[in-house]
Amino acid sequence: MLTEIAPAAVTDPAPRRTGWVRSLAARRGVRLAGLGILVLALVALYLFTDVPGSLAFAVRIRSLTVAAMLVVATAVGVSTVVFHTIVANRILTPSIMGFDSFYALISTLLVFFLGSGAFLGFDELTLWIVQVVVMVAFSVVLFTWLFGGRRRSIHLMLLVGIVLGTFFRSFTEWMQRMLDPLDFQVLTDAMFASLTRPDPLLLALTGVLVTAGCVVLIPLLPTLDVLTLGEATAVGLGVDHRRTVMTLFGVVSVMVAVSTALVGPIMFFGLIVANLAYSYVATFRHAWTLPAAAGLGMVCLLGGELVLERVFGFGATLSTVIEFAGGLFFLYLVLRKGAR
Amino acid sequence: MIALEGAVKTYGPTTVLDNVSVTFGGEGITALIGPNGAGKTTLFNIVGRLIRPDRGRVSVDGRPIEAVPGRELARVLAVLRQDNHLAARLTVTDLVEFGRFPHSGGRLTVADRDHVERALDYLGLQGYRGRFLDELSGGQRQRAFIAMVLAQDTRYVLLDEPLNNLDLRHMAEIMRLLRSMADDLDKRIVVVLHDVNFAATYADRIVAMRAGRILADGPPEEIISADVLADVYDTPVDVRRIDGRPVALYYG
């Protein structure tokens, strides 16, 4: 009956290479371990080199920054990969839902109405809570309205998210144009993601929430894998698609909101990190892609910060450094894949 | 048994399913035929719980499908969709392993792996098991998806146009395969077909739909007649008997 001739050689999922070093490097476990070692090396480099004064003092200050990076890298990497799976598209990031523009809008509104003096004098905890509540509320309203109802369309939700995000951005820019130069400068400063010297209390709160998000995701890992097959097939395999996607989206919104409120607009490198992770571990399984995305996010942030501080002497912004280097590396990966 | 009672589905002013009452799940193969837009896929989507009917009841083995947990239903009923676009690259084995998700929840046991191996054997896919789906031909790809459905190990198997985009040889190959799944493994198969001659050759029962209604339901000898087919497809169909079997000629 089934008379097709089997191919001469069975090809492996991972490309075959010659030599034991290369075959070892093709293993996912080895790759993930390598990533872990690289992260640790960068942490050591960041903490212990280029110390002008007391080593203990420098390490204490810098370890706060490292902790912030760890929390933010996890939140951005994990939320972007999960978002890709929900929307079945690998070129979007959760920022399409307007998280960053909302952050900008809230800060601008505060400066606009209360002035930069009041903005700087604001209690950081209050500001953080306001930012988080507004961002999460916005995304949850958008989501339950357009996905939880009868329409259940992810694409409609994305479209509305883009339109509202653009509207808020334009509105923000319009208000910024009317600010006096000093207020504007204070605001501009707040618009750049800054990982150095985070508030320990906020860092702890953010860390707890991001960890909680990861804990929620762990039992959902196999279900996330099934979701890559698309909604129809996932439902056919018994996944309660609506409830699962609602849960996942809730986790994504909280992770993005808390980390954005901690360090500023940060989603820019999610896209690079997630796609690097897909290439790096070469599998659709979330048990591999999620830790890889978090680890690569850590490499991006630490590496970017190191280059920013030690090479450019703060003469650039972190996003410029990460996007330039990460973008080039990403292009290399894409072109190499294409030539295969 | 899969039973629909008075199922109605409308999209705006268009009625896609118009008070459909039908029972599937008898032994062998049931072919669902009808022109495009007759409501065949909608019917499948309702049974597969992808959409809800506006009115009417749907039950599987006597239980209303809303009352059965998703995973439990997926152990009784498998649906292969028409469009199987994948966002990620997976291998044949990865895909077939997904068929075990309703049983294992993602952690494969020895028994699950056994089911996967048997499905790969049955579909003749062992030689391709490590290949990525996008590196396969249409026929191999379709077999991989059928292997996933087979690994799901359900009593009822619903397939929506599994012969789409296949050549003569692969169409016949898939139909023979479905026949042997029905005969050897006692699968109750419901399959949407566009080529009525395949339905006539392989099915035990043919259900014909048009404009959201069931127009005819019976054994192939009854359905494959010039009158019934002309009515279903709204176009003249010439039916001849060749070697005692009815053959529809619709190329003129």
Overview of this structure, please?
The complex is a heterodimer of chains A (340) and B (252). In chain A, helix 12 packs parallel to helix 14. The model of chain A is unreliable at 1-17 (pLDDT under 50). Chain A is built from 14 helices and no strands. Chain A has a single domain (38-339), classed as ABC transporter involved in vitamin B12 uptake, BtuC. Chain A has 340 residues and is mainly α. By secondary structure, chain B is an alpha/beta fold. Chain B folds into two domains: 1-76 and 156-165 and 181-252, P-loop containing nucleotide triphosphate hydrolases (Rossmann fold, 3-Layer(aba) Sandwich); 84-153, no CATH class. A six-stranded mixed sheet of chain B has the order 6-7-8-3-9-10, sandwiched between helices. A four-stranded antiparallel sheet of chain B has the order 2-1-4-5, with helices on one face. In chain B, strands 11-12 form a two-stranded antiparallel sheet. In chain B, helix 3 (92-98) packs parallel to helix 6 (138-151) and helix 5 packs antiparallel against helix 6. Chain B starts with a strand and ends with a strand. The model of chain B has no long low-confidence stretch (mean pLDDT 91).
